[in-house]
Amino acid sequence: MRSFQFRLDRVLSWRGKQLKMEENRLAACLDALHTLERAIARFRAERLVVERDLLQLRSIPAAEFINLSRYRLRAQKQEIEFGEQRQRSEKAVGDQRALVQKAQQRVMLLEKLRDRRLVEYRYARDRELEEVAAEAHLSRWSREN
Fold first, then answer.
1. What is the pLDDT of residue 112?
2. How far is the C-alpha of 45 from the C-alpha of 133, rounded, in Å?
C-alpha cells in the first residue's frame, strides 16, 4: 500500500500562510494601538506638568493666563483627536482579530479533514495487512495439509 498523502496539503499550506499573514497584520495593529496609547499617556503627562508648573507661580501674568487658556483648548482638541484615533485603531484590531479567527477556522477545518483521512487510511492499511496475513496463513496451512 502506498504511503498516506493528503490531497489538500497544498491548500492547507496556503491557508497556514494566510493565517500567519493575518496574525502578522494583527500584531502590527496591536503595535500601532500600543504606540498610540503611549503617545496619549505622554501627552497627558506633559499637559499636567505644564499646567502644574504654571499654576504654581505666585502671580500669573495675563498673557500667560491667556496662553494657558489657548493651550487647554488645543489640548482638548488633541484629546478628541486621540480618542478618535484610538477608536479607529481599536476597530482595526477588532476587525483583524475577526480575520485571524476566520483564517484559524479554515486551517482547523482542513486539519480535521486531514486527520479524518489519516484515520481512514490507517484503517484501510490495517485491513489490507490483516488480509495479507490471513492469505499467507491460509496458504501455509493449505501447503501443510
1. 97
2. 80
